[in-house]
Amino acid sequence: MHDPGFPGGGRDAGPGVLLTDLYELTMLQAYFEEGLGGSASFELFMRTLPPTRNFLLAAGLDQVLDYLATLRFTPEELDWLRGTGRFTDAFLASLEHLRFTGDVDAMPEGTAFFADEPILRITAPLREAQLVESRVMNLLHYETLVASKAARSVLAAGDRLLVDFGLRRAHGAEAGLLSARACYLAGFTGTATVEAGRRFGIPTFGTMAHSYVQVHADESQAFERFALAHPGNVMLLIDTYDTERAAQRVVDLAPRLAVKGIAIKGVRLDSGDLADHARRVRAILDAGGLKEVTIFASGNLDEYRLAELRAGGAPIDGFGIGTRMNTSADAPYFDCAYKLQEYDGKPRRKRSEGKATWPGRKQVYRHYDAAGRFAGDVLALAGQPEPGEPLLVPAMRGGTLVAPRRTLAQSREHARHQLACLPESLRSLSPAGEPYPVMVTEGLKTLAAEIDAST
To answer: What is the pTM of this model?
Structure first.
C-alpha cells in the first residue's frame, strides 16, 4: 500500500503553497517581468556533517513528491497575495495554472550519505524549481535530521524494542508526525503517536500514565483495572510511588489475572536510575515466576544512554525515546543548502566565501569492499558516468511520479541494509578517526576552474 505521506496526497491535505519564504515569490515576479523561464537545475545537499555524525540518512522524499504533485495556488491564496499590494495582476494571473512539470532525481529514502553529496535534484522551468525551495528544504532537512539521529539509536540498541515517544515535546503537530515516520524508517519498532499509525501504517505502542495510577485508591487496584480493560496488552507503569514495591504487587496480581486468562506482558520504568531499578525489578519478577514479563524503559533517553545501559548489562528489553530524538538534541540542525547548479543549459557555481558549490548536475557513485561495506563515494558530473553504484535515481519525470513509488516498509528495509553496510568506524557513536572518503572527479574540478576563470 502506498504511504500517503504528509502533507499532500492521500486523505489529508497539508499546508498550501504560501508556506514559503517571501523572497521566492518576489523573485518569481522579477523573473516574470524579465521573461526568464529557462530550465533550471537545483540540488539539495549538506555542506558539512555535525561533529557527532559519521553519516546521515536521507528521509522525507515521499513528502516532497506529494508536495510537488499537488503544487498549485488556490483562488483564496491568490486573492491574499493581491491584497498585499506587492504583486502585479499580470504576474498573479500567471500563477493560476502553475503546476510542477519538472524532473526529480533523488537518493531513495533510507540511503546513507555524506557532506557535499546531493540527495535531491530538481530540474524544471525556473519559476517552478525556485518556488519550491523553502518547502522542499523544510521537509527533507527535518526528516533527515531525525532519521540520522534515530539510526544511531538503532545501532546502539541492538535487537531491543525501540518506540518513538516524541509527540508531546515536538515542535508542532507536523514535526511530531514526521518525526514518528523518520524514526520508523530508520529502524524503530513503532510509535506512541496514534495519528502516525493511521497516516503511515506504523505499529503503535502504549501503556499508561502516572495519572491513571493516582486516580485509583491504591496501586494494585490500578494495575488490575487496567489489565481487565486491556487484557491483550497488559503493560504496567510501576514507578509512580515505590518501584520495587510495585514490582512485587505485579507478582501478587499475576495469579489472579491468570485465572481469567490474562497474562502480564511487561512493566515500564520512567524515572530514577534505570539500570539499578531494572536489575531489582528483574530479580523480583523472576523470583515470582514472571520471567516472561518484559521491562520497558523511558525518560530522557538517547543513543548515548542506550549504549551505556546496554554496555552495563541492564536487563531492559525495550526503550521509549522522545524529546532528545525529535529535536535531535545534540545536533539540532544541518547546514542544508538548495543551490542552482545549471540554468538554460549552462552550469552555474556559487563562489561565496565558505559556501562555494560544485557546478553542474551531479551524480554520486558508491563503491563497496569485498565484505559488502561502503568503501568510498565519487562525486561526478551527471553526464560523465563513473564506475560504482549511482545513488540518485529518477523519482519524477515531466511532473509525473515514476512508478512504483517505494512504500515506507520498503524504505525501512533499505535503511536497514544501508546501516548493515556501514564500515565499523562509522557505526560508532564516537567520531570516526578518518572521515568517509568522497572523491571529486577531475572533470568536475576542471569545470569549476573554467567557470571561475570566466566570472
So the answer is: 0.94
